[in-house]
Amino acid sequence: MKLPTLREIGTEAKLLLIGIPVLIWTLVPIYHMFLFAISPKEDAFSGKLWPDHPTLHNFEIVFRQQHYFLRDFWMQFGNSTVIALATGALTLFIATTAAFSISRLRAPGGRAMMNLALFTYFIPAAFLAVPMYRTMGNYGLLNSHWSLILAMVTIASPYAIWVLKQASDKLPVELDEAATMDGATTLQLFRLVYVPLMMPSLVAVGTYAILLAWNEYLYAFLLLSKDTDITLPVALGNFLAADDSPWELLMTTGFIYALPPAAIYYAFRRYMVGGLTAGAVKS
Amino acid sequence: MAITLSDHAIPRPPLSARLSTPQVWGILLLAPYLLVFLAFVLYPVGYGLWLARHPQSYVELYNDPIFARAAVNTLIFLVIGINVKMLIALFLSGFFVQQRAWIRWLSVLFILPWAVPSIPTILSVRFMLNPEWGVVNHIIFSLTGDDGPNWLNDPTVALTMAIGVHIWKSLPFWTLILMTGRLAISNDLFEAAAVDGASFWQKFRYITWPSMQTLYITCTLLSMIWTLGDFNSVYLLTGGGPADLTHVLSTLGIRYLRLDQLNLAMASIVCALPLVLPLVYFMMKRLSR
Q: Of A6, A84, A167, B137, which is most buried with the most CB atoms under 10 A?
């Protein structure tokens, strides 16, 4: 084995000099949250880097809803789940049909529709939130889960359509022609040829929509208000309303809330990186 | 006149005969998105613009010192915050493309801020900066024996922290995008440059940057558009405080909305349009090709 030269050691040291601050920068807020989650109340506020008596007691309190702020925890967890899944399903339906129509059927007006979708994609979400709030009021949907689901679908679909259109433009035209020659109807073409071939992109887009809805704070906070209707992030924000907030419980709830999206992200990382980031910015 | 008449003389075939079956299906399958667009984009935007029609709203807005402050804060956030973020991302993308096992592991961890929801992590930072109980001031106290500053009580520091939180959250995403840009550059170029004895800086200046500048500029603009809609970083860290001095346009619009001043909320957004529309136009031209 060859001993590393001085030059190689120098390069390695320089890389470490970048890597270690990056690691600390990345992990500190997450570690801090985790630390609070496993600390009893006295330890949490003492500023220690590791609690003297690590405990899972906070998780027990959250799961058993044994605190004023947590009395609807499971209900809110369920709301978040239902809204995320419904957003994922609806977005997939709307975006797949639209992308199929624009890219494969070359529907009249398809190009214009794509441009409208792209335009929507570029409206800053917080700007659209203001008129969206009033619109939902006019439709009589305020405080209904549908308002949040539909708002999230509105925000998720443009990007979903764009990604799916990019992916389906790459499928060869001969495929559709061959299927049509064999007597496939348009719907059969969609169901039996298009959807199976698009599966990787559909997984990416579905995951994207689910994570978007699960993570959403602003729209959830505007559109829902009853304690039993709100989603977890809004419940977390409500902790701030009190002066003596139980921060260790807030961090525990936040930690539980952050786990599913992180797990989904890492499980589908291959799809997410391939399907989304590559398409996010076309150079 | 004669031409118009002869046009009418020949009856046009009915719509259904002019469209083929796939085209009919095409229109039908576009309908779900069209409905969503009409009901939840076109109607709200039109309604919002209609609400913002009174010149009086703009006078009120102009006289509200919070608005001027929010506009300046937004510009600082975009011009300084985003450029600092993109420069760091450009630098780190060069770090993460190095072929080392530990760097690959680090890149997996590095994605975490992007993968976890922003609310709990922003609240975590907020508590770290708490002047009495936060870990930051605990460390300062144990090192120097002095009390640390009241971080979020100074508008400049608070806004800087909000920008920091924004960078923490979205840096991994942009680094990842710029990494794909770097990986697309042919290695032959670097080898040839190495043979010619090019320095680190020369390699960057003459190989990396020319092949990445379009991507870099696109990313910067896209990030600016998205950051205009970044409500969480400011709202959950500072709540717009102290004394409403750290608002940005996105939190200010929501503040007016909560105060039931919908016309002001919409007017403040309309004021941002001269900034947004050119960016949107540019991005659409790039992406719809």
A: A84
* B47 with A135: Cβ contact below 8 A: yes
Please report the pLDDT score of residue B13 as a whole number: 56
Q: What is the dihedral of CA A185, A186, A188, A193, to 10 degrees?
A: 120
User: How does DSSP assign A2-53, residue by residue?
Assistant: PPPPHHHHHHHHHHHHHHHHHHHHHHHHHHHHHHHHTS-HHHHTTT-SS-SS
Cα dihedral sign, B176-B118-B166-A158: positive
Mean pLDDT of B66-90: 93
Interface contact flag, A29 B128, Cβ < 8 Å: yes
Phi, psi of B99 (to 5 degrees): -85, 90
Q: pLDDT tens, B236-284?
A: 888 887 888 889 888 888 888 888 888 888 988 888 888 888 888 888 8
CB atoms within 10 A of CB A86: 20
Which of A132, A111, A271 has the alpha carbon at shortest distance from A203? A271
- Which residues of A are less than 8 Å from B284 in CB distance? 115, 118-119, 122
Residue located via tokens 């500029």: B217
A59 touches chain B (CB under 8 A): no
DSSP string, B4-36: HHHHHHSPPPPHHHHS-HHHHHHHHHHHHHHHH
Nearest-Cα residue of chain A relative to residue B218: A281
CA distance A218 to chain B (A): 7
Which residues of chain B are within 8 Å of residue A49 when distances are taken between CB atoms?
135
Residues of B with Cβ-Cβ distance to A237 under 8 angstroms: 119, 236
Residue B132: burial class (beta carbons within 10 Å; 0-12, 13-18, 19+): exposed
Paired tokens of A276? 């989304």
Q: At what angle do helices A110-121 and B262-287 cross, to 10 degrees?
A: 120
Chain B interface includes A187 (CB < 8 A): yes
Alpha-carbon span A257 to A30, nearest angstrom: 13
Q: Please answer yes or no on whether A93 and B116 come within 8 Å at the CB atom.
A: no
Whole-complex ipTM: 0.87
Can you say whether residue B240 is alpha, beta or left, with left for phi > 0 and alpha for psi between -120 and 50 degrees? left
